[in-house]
């Protein structure tokens, strides 16, 4: 008889980078990366973990970039939020193809395309083992999907926000620009804020700190890393309150 290993979390909010979905491309979604991520999510669903999912939109549009090109920032942010819905549609489809039950909710109502965000429905879907994809960020311009991930994570009472990214965790400086940057295993919210370590935006961090939800940052390009994080293995960086940093 095979025994299912015990997960360290009961319910998580997983934040997937939109940029990571591009794989080796310059824009859009690499089907191979999408399908691999869907299979990795399936593995943790099979461990009995309830999964809320927020996907970024950086592979398609970001309001900031569009504003630099001359567009009104609010319109650019609307496009960025709709980009996250497109990523959500692709991920829901990939999950369904992998025989994982999933619902897509949008903070901007899109009748006929997906469900509108509803907290009570989300909780009931999670309890029934469905993956819930929260798209369109917070529904408001001037925010990011990192803030949306912390917000939804707090709302669904997730045990942690798991930020899946392209680097191994939080470093002493941006590792892409600074090859001497050192990987930090545990760090407090305050230290991240004071040192301005930009792996997530500051409003997301302050929200997580004020509501005491831990953040795990890890590399989604490493196959099996998500499962190892969920099983409590030593992967990536944990951001939490100072009294828990030393443990
Ligand atoms: N101190 C730091 N530690 C780790 N990463 C850092 C740090 N400072 C900046 N970064 C950068 O932050 C990036 C995080 O990018 P990621 O694509 O995961 O986030 P995002 O911009 O929220 O995602 P999306 O593509 O969905 O918009 C890393 O690729 C890394 O280069
Ligand atoms: O609450 C939100 C979330 C996102 N946006 C816009 O969408 C893009 C894509 O999100 P990323 O987090 O950068 O991947 C973002 O740049 C914003 O333009 C938003 O307006 N509000």
UniProtKB/TrEMBL annotation:
- Top-level division of the source organism's lineage: Bacteria
User: GO terms for biological process?
Assistant: 'de novo' CTP biosynthetic process; UDP biosynthetic process
Q: Where in the cell is it found?
A: Cytoplasm
Q: What does the UniProt record note about how this protein's activity is regulated? A: Inhibited by UTP.
Q: Which gene encodes it?
A: pyrH
Has keyword Cell division?
A: no
Residues holding UMP: 57, 77, 138-145
Q: What class of enzyme is it?
A: transferase
HAMAP family per the record?
PyrH_B (MF_01220_B)
| UniProt name for this protein | Uridylate kinase
> Which key words are in the record?
ATP-binding, Cytoplasm, Kinase, Nucleotide-binding, Pyrimidine biosynthesis, Transferase
Q: In which pathway does it act?
A: Pyrimidine metabolism; CTP biosynthesis via de novo pathway; UDP from UMP (UMPK route): step 1/1
Where in the numbering of this chain does the Aspartate/glutamate/uridylate kinase domain appear? 11-219
Q: What is its EC number?
A: 2.7.4.22
Query: What binding partners and quaternary form does the record give?
Result: Homohexamer.
Q: Which InterPro entries match?
A: AceGlu_kinase-like_sf, Asp/Glu/Uridylate_kinase, Uridylate_kinase, Uridylate_kinase_bac
Q: What the protein does?
A: Catalyzes the reversible phosphorylation of UMP to UDP.
Gene3D superfamilies for the chain: Acetylglutamate kinase-like
Q: What is its main location?
A: cytoplasm
Instruction: Give the record's GO CC terms.
Output: cytosol
């Amino acid at each position: 008889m095979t025994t299912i290993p015990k997960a360290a979390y009961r319910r998580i909010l997983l934040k997937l980078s939109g940029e990571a979905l591009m794989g080796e491309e310059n824009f859009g979604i690499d089907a191979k990366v999408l399908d691999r991520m869907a299979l990795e999510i399936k593995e943790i669903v099979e461990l009995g973990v309830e999964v809320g999912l927020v996907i970024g939109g950086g592979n398609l549009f970001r309001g900031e970039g569009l504003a630099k090109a001359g567009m009104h920032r609010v319109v650019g942010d609307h496009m960025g939020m709709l980009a996250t819905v497109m990523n959500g549609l692709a991920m829901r489809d990939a999950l369904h193809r992998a025989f994982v039950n999933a619902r897509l909710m949008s903070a901007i109502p899109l009748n006929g395309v997906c469900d509108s965000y509803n907290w009570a429905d989300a909780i009931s879907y999670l309890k029934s083992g469905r993956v819930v994809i929260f798209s369109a960020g917070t529904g408001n311009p001037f925010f990011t999907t990192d803030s949306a991930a912390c917000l939804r994570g707090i709302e669904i009472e997730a045990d942690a926000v798991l930020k899946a990214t392209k680097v191994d965790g939080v470093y002493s400086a941006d590792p892409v620009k600074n090859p001497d940057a050192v990987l930090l295993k545990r760090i407090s919210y305050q230290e991240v804020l004071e040192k301005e370590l930009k792996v997530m935006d500051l409003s997301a961090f302050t929200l997580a700190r004020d509501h005491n939800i831990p953040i795990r940052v890890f590399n989604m390009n490493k196959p099996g890393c998500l499962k190892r994080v969920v099983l409590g293995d030593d992967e990536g960086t944990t951001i939490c309150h100072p009294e828990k940093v030393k443990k």
